[in-house]
Amino acid sequence: MNKIDKTQHGKVSELKSIQKVLLICGIFSSLLYVGADIFAAMQCEGYSYISQSVSELQAIGASTRPLIVSLFTMYNVLIIAFGSGIWVTDSRKRAHFTGLLLIGYGIVGCVALLFFPMHLRGAEKTISDTMHVTFTGVIVLFILLYIGFGATLHGKWFRLYSIGTILILIIFGVLAGMDAPRVAAQLPTPWLGIKERINIYASMLWVLVLAIKTLRAENGQTFYT
């Protein structure tokens, strides 16, 4: 191997290493989000993991807001990195769309987290609450789109798994959404936390599975067409 070949080989190896790190960010992003949610719920006095939403952990006035903001900001950075990894690893157009949608999801999630939190129940509502609901809807749309595009990346079984995930998101999203008027009216919301977390954790698991399958495909160079 001559000097030029060695240089090219070194650049290819470096690129592969960067791609692998970016894809691993997808695994860590899901683990971080779930871990942060559970940990913050344990730290917030009077908070009910079963009947209160994740947004209430990051609400204005919540004791856990500083913790959640720092951890979820890290999550969004990781998901943006993962989306970049999907983009640079897989040359197919649908993979590029999936990567771009993951990046967009991370950016929108970060903006909503930092600038448009909701208020705690009982507090006076402001434009921030309205924008929080709007951004939440946009985030849900991004999730459905990146799962929809990503469903075709790794063969039949991953496509079926993705369809199942989308059905879970729709069903439990509707069930959780039915509690919105009760939250606004400051009424009890039994099982809201569980319904919302089934929704969220299902999407987190999908990202984790996508990351693992893409890493395996990259190592074996066997992407489905």
Descriptive keywords:
225 residues, mainly alpha
What do these coordinates show?
By secondary structure, this protein is mostly helical. It has one domain. 76% of the residues lie in helices and 0% in strands. The chain has helices at residues 3-43, 65-89, 93-115, 127-150, 155-177, 180-184, 192-220. Helix 4 (127-150) runs antiparallel to helix 5 (155-177). The protein is globular, with a radius of gyration of 19 Å.
Average of the residue pLDDT scores:
91
Number of strands: 0
Radius of gyration: 19 Å
Number of helices: 7
Instruction: Characterize the largest beta sheet: strand count, sense, and whether it forms a barrel.
Output: none
Q: Considering DSSP H and I runs of 4 or more, what fraction of the residues is helical?
A: over 70%
Q: What gap, in angstroms, lies between the N and C termini?
A: 33 Å
Ranges where pLDDT stays below 50 over 5 or more residues in a row are: none
Number of separate structural domains: 1
Note the beta-strand portion: under 5%
Main structural class: mainly alpha
Assign an overall shape. Answer: globular
Q: Strand-and-helix sequence, N→C?
A: HHHHHHH
